[in-house]
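Slide 14.
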Amino acid sequence: MDDMDQVFLSYRHSDGDELAEATAWVLRSHGVPVWHDQTHLPPGRFDRRLDEALKSDLSGAVLLITPDIVHSDIVRNQELPALLALEADSAFTFAIGSVVMDSTGKLDFGAPDRFLPQEGWSLRDFDQFPVTTREEIARLAGEMAARRVRRAAVDGRLLLNLQTRLPARGTPKAPLAVRTRPPLPGTSVPPPEAWADIAPFLADLPRLVQAAGVKHLHITGGAHLSIAFALGAAVPTTSGLTVSVVDHHGNDWSGGTAPSVPLAEEEISLGDVSDGPVAVYLDLVDTAPNKEFRRYVESNRFARAVEILVAERELIPAEAGPALVTELRRRIGELAAGSPVHLFLRVPFPVAVLLGRACNTLRVVLYEWEREGETPAYLEMATVSAGRSGGPVISWTTDR
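Slide 15: predicted structure.
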């Protein structure tokens, strides 16, 4: 049994579909890969495919208790006995999430045994969590993630792999394999639900790494830059944690000693606007800049708008990462002058993460470029502040 394997989700379809989907995505957003029949069961005879899944590589399970589960012969007679047999291995993590409350409004710890009696087993002995709200689901997911991290941290080092654009199927084995809901059909940006799922994880990440004795967090993958920035803000430079970030070519952007690349800064004339926030566009890639930033700030109320670009349209060497991020943080801080800054990112993934770590005294409103649809446009995503006790994500936009 491998601690990095998936967690099996067991539930009743008739009244548990919505809960199971929410739980699956909150777990994935906490770095816990999930086997969920709605997305993983291949074509074929259901019983045979399910039996194959239960005999495949699993590191744990979550049993969701809803009122109708009492009528599920599959859960009672097939899934649960197999999962309890696996639980005999100390490496297997088994937890119960329930929406069934007692007459006082508290979690009914006896419901699992009444609904799904198992000879020789008392389900009351296992950890049970209420899962009637997203916050409660996040507490269950946080505990599953904590157990995973404690087992996976090696010599104080932990790997976190982040992806926000890909479907959950095919998640690689990693101690924290963070996967968010991908963009909705016809869109290219994170849906609001992705922010709702990942915000509790980012708030909990410092606790997870501290409890496991992690001193070095190694980040890989690729993601929407707003979420990459928020991930960095979850582990700011003031946290004392060493963070390395590697791009998809295997280059580490966090330990180089090369000087920063030359940057050009240009202010956009907005006419006679005396109040409003500052907008900053960072364009550090080797293709032509996105002219839509100018159109956006001209049609919205900003006091100032500044473009910071690479002076030469060439690939930035990873060795220049630390010096580049330091220079960007200095410039953004001067432009913000203590006020919130609206940030438009077109940078390598590692730069977004490292910049999020560095902006630990700023409140930042993050945007994404929506390239799909008839009228591509910038969309506001979330407001982030590093080092905040409630987690870096202050709010996210829901009216999209």
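Speaker note: The chain has two domains: 6-149, 153-400.
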